[in-house]
Amino acid sequence: MIAYLTAIGIVALIYALLALGLNLQFGLTRLVNFGVVAFFAIGAYTSALLALKGVPLLVTFSAATLLAGLSALPIGLLSLRLRDDYLAIVTLGFSESLRITIQQEEWLTKGVQGVPGIPKLFGSLGPGVSDSAQLLLLMAITALVAWGTVRLTRSPLGRLLRAIGDDEPALMALGKDPTWFKVQIFMLGAALAGLSGAFYAHFITYISPEQFVPLVTFYVWMGLIMGGAGSVRGALGGAVLLMVFLEGSRFIKDWIPGVSEVQMASVRLAAVGLALILVTLYKPNGMFGRSAS
Fold first, then answer.
1. Could you read off the pLDDT of 64-92 as tens digits, one per residue?
2. Which of 62, 31, 6 is nearest to 189 (CA)?
3. What is the DSSP letter of 174?
4. What are 168-181's pLDDT values in tens digits?
5. pTM value?
6. Contact call for residues 16 and 26 (beta carbons, < 8 A)
7. CA triplet 280, 282, 285: central angle to 5 degrees?
8. What ranges do the domains of the chain cover?
9. Which has the closest alpha carbon to 35: 10, 71, 77, 63?
10. Which residues lie closer than 8 Å to 190 by C-beta, 6 or more apart?
């Protein structure tokens, strides 16, 4: 039971990092990123492939974060010309193009066979202890990222980013150029996704293209919307709510007779979708977001 709860905690914190990154992009500047899973995959594959070559994990995690952030630069530059649904389409297309590339480039990623044998973080401590140590490390990093995000949102830069999201033309009319700020915040959110991908790869110890489908992106969006976009509390609370619904829905089978394992996957998605609809209707600012005035 302890091992199960530890695993759930690790996955929840990985989604919390993803939600914090998306919150910077959408919650502050209203950049609609439907390609979160692409930067998640870049981080996972970068750290995994380097680690299998004997590179120290500290270096692989740094490389995963850096490469994911840098790969967001072209998309960030596109965000200067694209808004809302157009940017969403571009980022979604980018994530699918990346997944297909991972499938096809077998010489590097081993294609659909996946990458097995990824060294576990703190693996020398033993199976149970290593997971507990990774959970503690993730808690510390998530807390640090959350603290940094709060400091950012309360700073002059944070107020500028909110102004970009609220009314960019009005901001430009005041003589402010939001160009580089939008690129920076997009890269920062992508870097956090890359870091979470590295944690995911070294926790699961096996990755394949099928693990990086658009559904992961929409899970992160669900968590952020349910929790409340634009606030750190909403991003963290939404990630926890998402895991409660995803894991709690596993036990629906005990209450619904005659449901097969295959059908159960659809029931779980329906349960999460229903929860999202109810939250949107009755708590439009999210369960943990700012109250509507």
1. 999 999 999 988 887 667 666 788 888 99
2. 31
3. T
4. 777 777 677 777 88
5. 0.91
6. no
7. 60
8. 2-211
9. 71
10. 21, 39, 68, 69, 71, 72, 75
